[in-house]
Amino acid sequence: MLSEFELIARHFARSPWGESHGVALGVGDDCALLTPRAGCQLVVSVDTSVAEVHFPADAPPAAIGHRALAVALSDLAAMGAAPRWCLMALTLPAVDDGWLGEFASGFHALCEQSGVALVGGDVTRGQLAISVTVHGEVPVGAALTRHAACPDEVLAVTGTLGGACAGLKAWQAGERDLAQPLLASYLLPQPRLAAGQALRGLASAAIDLSDGLLPDLGHLCEASGVGADLDAAALPLADGLVAALGEEGARQAALAGGDDYELLVSLPSSAWDVARTRLAALGLTLTAVGSCSATPGVRGVAAVDGWQHFPGGKP
Amino acid sequence: MLSEFELIARHFARSPWGESHGVALGVGDDCALLTPRAGCQLVVSVDTSVAEVHFPADAPPAAIGHRALAVALSDLAAMGAAPRWCLMALTLPAVDDGWLGEFASGFHALCEQSGVALVGGDVTRGQLAISVTVHGEVPVGAALTRHAACPDEVLAVTGTLGGACAGLKAWQAGERDLAQPLLASYLLPQPRLAAGQALRGLASAAIDLSDGLLPDLGHLCEASGVGADLDAAALPLADGLVAALGEEGARQAALAGGDDYELLVSLPSSAWDVARTRLAALGLTLTAVGSCSATPGVRGVAAVDGWQHFPGGKP
């Protein structure tokens, strides 16, 4: 049996990042020592992924590692932050070196793809869970928040919706091919980091779609003190969603399925063309799905099952 | 049943810290926005406390909240960092509003005592666990690390040893009075934040005693490439330790009991008087327990039971 320290050293100590990435001291001491960039604010968030709550315990370990980091990075994306550093608190029911190696490879691959240095962590014994703290940076005052959406602005989402919900159902039905796009949407979400940074100076408010379009729109509206008129017919459905779930199922998945990790933004119509062009340059669509309103509440969609968080009144 | 968001808002959103503490945006958005101090490095660490692994699940909730933060802050203390901000990832088996209120009160009380702003978090469902990420700051280059101890330096510990181990045994024997000092040592450890900062510029290396004196000394020696000669007779035993555990039990608790969260430092003898005086001004003792050596390994103590992590050779 390897000790906690040996586990950390073997699978998580490797890091291609050094002083040039602001890492004065990485994994291996009581703390990491980091050098923030002058003129920037620090952007921090933590997300815990629990087995059988947030992901299937028997999912491929590399996908579990990827996904645990991706959902945390998605919060940085929603703030328009450039990712810098992360820490991982890993709780394991048992030590399985093969599992850990694959898990770490999925985690490290997304670190490298996103420009995030893993600078610290903790390994404990218990029910499988991964808590990831992410650190990003934004120029002072440039962060996107939830609370500055204004009436008459365009509400828009990146990418497509509903795919993760359908992917979960596919997993539950026995699908195991990660090349299947809907399953990949669920197990290998892509945090919209470049999109969030591209929308700085254009969007007045942003949030990532973790709970689902309607509940997350509710959070944004509540924080900004606005309402919303959605255009249900405009929702960008994931490819194959209607074929997988039927028309009504696809609509519900897009509105309240959750786990899509796209961005929902509010932006003035004057910024629309530039925003769309910038995202197109990143290979990503931006789709208008409605508009903000001075009238509280969300209109334009019928009630959706299985959706409890939304604090405003249902239409 | 309160939603995750309402739980967070009720118990964890309150914060007396604002812009003056570097908090541009606290709990409630996708991320917190923080303003690092110019001329400082950021010091970060994460620690997870799992019920029945790190603390008794039926311990007083306020003590669980205190302890989860204290063990994380102890890592900042070991780096000589001034604490600034924290995030909490809380995993709960069920929602109990009374439990949460007490837990939060213990957590917040230590936040206020230590000058730490809670700026974000996540609440998930699962086995009770608390993962706390802490952020501190040190002037560039002033951090204490594990890797710079030198031969012939004095090895010293703050406070007393073995109390937490005896406190755990007392809890297991039915003691429930938190005014009992040994039990308090275990459930309400005091991170040595002021001591760590006072030792900047004096100590050449530091580590906090979470695993126990011998294993943590092993980590320090390994990182620094030195050995150590301990003076077992010099160990500062917690008050009442011999009465509680007997002489041999007290010795083992002090050497390998763990959970004391004192600091172990290495410092040149020229710095000894100043260091001791500075800590005395904080109401804290500093006790020499041995010296560093160019010869690898730890000498001066007989083998200790129940102690597996130490990477060097046992005497």
TrEMBL record, chains A, B:
PurM-like C-terminal domain location: 152-297
EC class name: transferase
Binding positions (substrate): 54, 259, 307
UniProt-listed Enzyme Commission number(s): 2.7.4.16
Gene3D superfamilies: PurM-like C-terminal domain, PurM-like, N-terminal domain
Annotated residues for binding of Mg(2+) 4: 30, 45, 75
Protein name: Thiamine-monophosphate kinase
Gene name of the record: thiL
